[in-house]
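Troubleshooting entry. The earlier prediction with zinc ion gave an output that would not parse, so I re-checked the input for stray whitespace and re-submitted. Clean input:
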Amino acid sequence: MKSYRKELWFHTTHRREYINITDQVRSVLLESGISEGLILVNAMHITASVFINDDESGLHEDFETWLEGLAPEKPYSQYRHNGFEDNADAHLKRQIMGREVVVAITEGKLDLGPWEQIFYAEYDGKRRKRVLIKIIGE
Ligand code: ZN
């Protein structure tokens, strides 16, 4: 069995952002030379997510509205976590949107469904943050 590890770095210009990372994940898979196995993609920060869904801008606005309804950013004072920080909402958004995805690798390709795309979701951005990719297989 082979394994391969790589980190992707992101520095968003906004506090919240959705970035389609499917092509970057595909490139890392190609680099690895692994053609059958599993690929794990996870956010390495507790205020960011990796998830799979449709690459459709309306849906991303719906995520924003839905998440702001569940855990509004402001007022900051509504959260006990916000003593020295202002990112309690980002922790909560990350919790519901998830930490990682696992995708099957078949014949050297990401074995995704027809509309499935991999996203990095940032909830407390404007700084450098990482995603880990770990591939195992042969
Ligand atoms: Zn925090």
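This one parsed fine. The beta strands are 2-11, 17-20, 37-43, 48-53, 100-106, 109-110, 117-122, 128-137.
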